[in-house]
Design goal:
nucleic acid binding, RNaseH-like_sf, Nucleotidyltransferase, domain 5, 14 helices, 3'-5'_exonuclease_dom, 3'-5' exonuclease activity, 10% strand, RNaseH_sf, alpha/beta, globular
């Protein structure tokens, strides 16, 4: 499945309309999010934001490098923007290690994330024994999902392009058009995050879950301070958790959802949802094209509609 690149205002409007549709009143919707960039954090840059909303398997790659502040500031008539979605406590976003992502979003675009499920923290909480250190996403995938040679191949191809220790350079995330290897790299990890969350949710104990939101909120607060350093060995040290038998408090709404039987359904990806989402985006894109054509005295609806449908590989 090819990712959908959101690199102009009409496409971003279409994505925001989709988010509004999926996260309306009374709807439970998880959004899986990841960021890529150069020295990602408070002092670096955000190049791409990956977004996945099950049950659709389509990954949306928001081109932050090209859109700039509009990526988070562009707002629909009903008040929806990527900033409001990321800041809403009622829309649950799943990140893997929120710290550098939160720091970058806050420092560069003034985004104060809320409603966050930190997959790294959840994984750490389910271990027995837990050990001292948290795991990275790659280790979680290797340890907790069936072996997938194709995943390893895509990962290695991407790392050779961006990882300095193997001859790459992070600036590859700023090149346009994005290379196929980078598109595939950006897409695949966020696609596997729902399966990890579903697996960890089954193992998460109530007494431990009640402690996790405070840990995640603390990570977010720390990431926004001027003294936060998002690089170094200290980032690998796991959070402190007390024995669950000493805790008798309710978990946050985010963590209650993680422990609920509903989680498996919310994490399931369904190829049958692709056409509906593509049609939704195309419809909004055509409407945006009509407005643009009317203002400019031109008619380019066919061309506009074609740009919204991602080409299959």
């Amino acid at each position: 499945m090819a990712p959908f690149v959101v690199d102009d205002e009409p496409k971003l409007h279409a994505l925001l309309a989709l988010i509004t549709k999926r996260t309306g009143a009374g709807q439970d919707q998880l959004m899986f999010v990841d960021l890529e960039g150069v020295n990602l954090g408070r002092t670096g840059t955000i190049a791409i934001m990956q977004l996945l909303m099950p049950p659709s398997p389509v990954v949306y790659l928001v081109d932050v490098h090209r859109l700039g502040a509009k990526a988070f500031g562009l707002t629909t008539a009903d008040g929806t923007s990527l900033q409001t979605a990321l800041e809403s406590p009622d829309i649950f976003k799943v990140f893997f290690d929120i710290r550098n992502d939160s720091g970058a979003l806050h420092a560069h675009f003034g985004v104060n994330v809320a409603g966050i499920i930190d997959l790294q923290v959840v994984e750490y909480a389910t271990r027995n024994p837990r050990g001292r250190f948290v795991n990275g996403l790659a280790k979680c995938i290797e340890k907790d999902l069936p072996h997938n040679p194709a995943w390893s191949l895509v990962k290695d191809k991407g790392r050779r392009l961006f990882a300095p220790e193997v001859g790459g350079r992070y600036e590859v995330f700023l090149e346009r058009p994005l290379r196929d290897e980078i598109l595939e790299y950006c897409e695949q990890d966020v696609t596997l995050m729902p399966r990890l969350l579903a697996a960890y949710g089954e193992r998460l104990q109530a007494g431990v879950a009640a402690q996790l939101q405070g840990i995640v909120d603390g990570r977010i607060r720390l990431s926004k301070t001027d003294t936060f350093n998002g690089k170094g060995r200290h980032m690998a040290v796991g959070p402190r958790l007390t024995p669950s038998r000493y805790r008798d408090v309710s978990a946050s709404r985010e963590l209650e959802l993680v422990r609920s039987p509903q989680l498996v359904h919310l994490c399931r990806l369904d190829d049958g949802c692709i056409e509906d989402l593509t049609d939704q985006l195309a419809t909004v894109q055509i409407n945006a094209g009509e407005a643009t054509a009317s203002a400019q005295g031109t008619s380019s609806l066919t061309a506009v509609a074609r740009t919204v449908v991602p080409a299959a590989r």
